[in-house]
Design brief:
The chain is an alpha/beta fold and about 240 residues long. About 30% of the residues lie in helices and about 20% in strands. The chain has one domain: Rossmann fold, CATH 3.40.50.1360. It is built from six helices and nine strands; from the N terminus they run βαβαββααβββαβαβ.
Amino acid sequence: MKEVLKFKTLEELSRAAANEVLKEIEAGIRRSGRFTIALSGGHTPSGLYSILASDYRDRIKWDAVHFFFGDERYVPHTDNLSNFKMAKLSLLDVVPVPRVNVHAIPTMLADADVSAKKYEEELRKTFAGGTQTFDLLLLGMGKEGHTASLFPRSPALDEKDRWVLPVVVPIVPPERITLTYDALNRSRATFLLVAGEDKAETVGKVLGRDADYHTFPVKGIHPMSGKLVWYLDAAAASRL
């Protein structure tokens, strides 16, 4: 099921998404006693994280929530380019989540492939015995249509076996680790947060009928057994 929601501003988008994240967490904990969420990097979700850490801090059972990441820049976790650092400062350091519940992609191992394999081992152990991965996956989209660190025409787009891969991308920093479609599309629910006029043309193409996932990798996001919700601000939705 795909749904497209439009909001006047990024602030409105973030508040609406935060409210739905709360609902998903509450439902997930009622369902299984825990909730697994994969976070996105970049600028757009930082407002959502800050709202969860402030307005929703006392409404969420944080010790039942486990945090993962859809991708990571292959830099130290202390680097300003790190997705983990952004989430840590805006959310994870602010709420009372146990450290053992935070599953960062390791970027301190011998090389990116070793790190990718280590993270895949952790994911497969966490989700062993089922066809689903995360209860909720948060994603963004770049102006050229990439999502996570799946970029146009990357060999990673056609990976069928591995859940996590090292990739080299055409923007800074080039060395990254990303989940593949096989892991991303196993989520129970996926929220795609997109803001900014520079995304508008791509949003129009991706939500149309002509785009393909090799050209616009976000087009390859199709949850196997769950819902996909696009959260767009007015600028990003201006070409629809």
